[in-house]
Amino acid sequence: MNDTMMRRLAKPMLLAAALIWGSSFFIMKGAVDVIPTFFLLAIRFTGGAGLLALVCWKRWREFTPDYLWRGAVMGGFLFTAYSIQTFGIALTTPSNNAFLTAVYCVLVPFLYWAVMGKRPDRYNILAAVLCVAGVGLVSLNGSFSINPGDALTLVGAFFYAGHIVSVEKVSQERDIYLLTIFQFAFAALYAWILGFLFQTPPSAGVFSGEMVGQLLYLTVMCTTAALLFQNVGQVWSDPSSAAILLSLESVFGVLFSVIFYGDPITLQLLAGFALIFVAVVCSETKLGFLKRAEG
Description:
Elements: H1 3-32, H2 37-55, H3 66-89, H4 94-101, H5 104-116, H6 122-139, H7 148-170, H8 176-198, H9 209-235, H10 239-261, H11 267-285, H12 288-294
Helix pairs in contact: 1-4, 1-9, 1-10, 2-8, 2-9, 3-7, 3-8, 4-7, 4-10, 5-6, 5-7, 6-11, 10-11
């Protein structure tokens, strides 16, 4: 494909990635009810690593031994984030899990400051304030306590932010596709080890036709295809547009949860979701679209 065609496809690819990831919240909710968390992640990451290894087979010529430790670091953050999020979704609603996970977009600049020394600007600070307010509306009940699932999801969001910073730190001058293969492979290794140490493997009877379909969707679409859509789409898009489209993952997550899982929607929940969404947009775009409109 030529450059013009790739630019035209970039935004649809980013939107498709957000749509796919948004749909994974209610699907994962069903899977985690019958498959222990670590084994669910082990299946997903093993399949993702295998598929990416096949799709990107030409990139193996770039391999050097340092890809192993780099992939192990990236895989560690990814596995921890996914594990905590998956435990969290078992204790909260898919819509809460979807939106609270999006907090990582706001956390990234501050964690990046701590690790890389780049200070966040006023838009990052404004986004953090808006995000905290939104999290309060979504997570706090009348007694001002936080649902354990919501709290776990927020911790998972921190590790998602750590994962993004770790990728920036260890992937410089390395093939990101090849690194991603090792990232998934190590995440799968961690999941298999912890699964056999602390959980009971799922019985064969669990894998009904419907469950196998859910696992295939999580593996093929949510782990492999969506990642490739995001990577290619970001190459051919400006960062502001890419961030807005990818942040719609949470919006799609709620829509799918309401339609297919029957999550309740209240005015307080909607207000919290709106504040979190505005925080994500503010953090990622610096409100540049408003400046252009004024100009």
